[in-house]
Specification:
Elements (H helix, E strand, L loop, with lengths): L1 E7 L5 H14 L4 E7 L12 H6 L1 H5 L17 E6 L1 E2 L2 E2 L1 H7 L2 H7 L3 E8 L4 H14 L2 E9 L4 H14 L15 H6 L1 H12 L23 H20 L6 H19 L1 H12 L4 H11 L6
Helix pairs in contact: 1-9, 10-11
């Protein structure tokens, strides 16, 4: 009997739907025992987010300051762990980071194959790089990564995703498409669970190789790689300034947050479109380096 631990943290419920689809075939496998758990912070985060509460967690997310989480009733040894997370400010969500920094995670993840599952807007590369570091610190073996991103163009999701997070509304409006991952993409993610059933039956998880290769588990948008790197560097600088301004929800921190949001909106409306245009014009000169970067970020589950 193979034992699989499934962990996730979801606020809106979208990631939970993705995880449900992926693991559904595993629950039908007679040879697989699934333990399915939601990571729960000791102090729950609100959803929808109040404006300042949302930005107050920005520095802690960027610098991987995890929050205390409730222990999970699990066994000690698993053949495979499937970990679902969302991206907060180009970083793993704080509750997931908090769990991975716990003593319980040190016992569960050591020498264990791990598959990460991400559902987010469209920028997840830096979050996954940080996740790789967290898993490496635990002695875990990352063997696969599944990524589902929101529908709509990047410029649209600059509006639709914050609206969803701050109001709970994800429906279409004006000329903007609905926020979130397409339902048909969520439904089709059951193919990953079906493949895992076969892999576990054949003991493939012990080989420390990708189990989901050639299933379209991950697709890197090369146009966003440089933008995400630039954004992450900016996040590191601003989150440090916000942190120095005071503790969460203090007046000093909220003042700096207000300045930052004005800066961010100005950046999105001016510099970001210009940067995307320049990089599009230069893309023929950067084909080799871009292809190399895409190949790297699509590992280990390159389609």
């Amino acid at each position: 009997m193979k034992k699989v631990l499934i962990l996730y943290y979801s606020q809106s419920g979208q990631l939970e739907s993705v995880m449900d689809q992926i693991v559904a075939p595993l629950f039908l496998c007679d040879e697989v025992q699934c333990d399915y758990h939601k990571i729960e912070p000791e102090i729950p985060y609100p959803y929808p987010w109040p404006f300042y509460t949302f930005f107050n967690v920005f520095p802690e997310a960027v610098y991987l300051d995890g929050c205390p989480v409730k222990p999970i009733a699990t066994e000690e040894n698993y053949d495979l762990i499937i970990l679902g997370y969302t991206s907060w400010f180009l970083s793993p969500s704080i509750p997931v980071t908090g769990f991975l920094q716990s003593n319980q995670a040190k016992r569960l993840f050591k020498n264990t194959p791990v598959i990460t599952v991400i559902a987010c807007r469209d920028m997840w590369l830096m979050a996954q790089e940080k996740m790789k570091g967290l898993l490496s610190d635990l002695g875990a073996q990352l063997i696969d990564n599944v990524v589902l991103t929101d529908q709509g163009k990047s410029l649209y999701t600059f509006i639709t995703t914050p609206r969803w997070m701050l109001t709970g509304k994800k429906d279409s409006f004006w000329f903007f498409p609905p926020a979130g991952v397409l339902q048909k993409e969520i439904a089709s993610s059951s193919r990953f669970g079906e493949r895992l059933c076969k892999a576990l039956h054949n003991d493939e998880e012990r080989s420390n190789i990708s189990l989901l290769r050639n299933l379209g588990a991950v697709n890197v948008n090369g146009k966003l790689i440089a933008t995400e790197h630039i954004a992450h560097r900016s996040f590191l600088i601003w989150s440090k300034l916000i942190k120095k301004a005071g503790p969460q929800n203090s007046r000093g921190r909220n003042v700096v947050i207000t300045i930052y949001v004005i800066f961010l909106l100005t950046l999105i409306l001016t510099v970001v479109p210009l940067n995307m245009l320049i990089r599009k014009l230069l893309s023929p000169l950067r084909k080799k380096s871009l292809a190399k970067a895409i190949h790297y970020y699509e590992q280990p589950s390159r389609k």
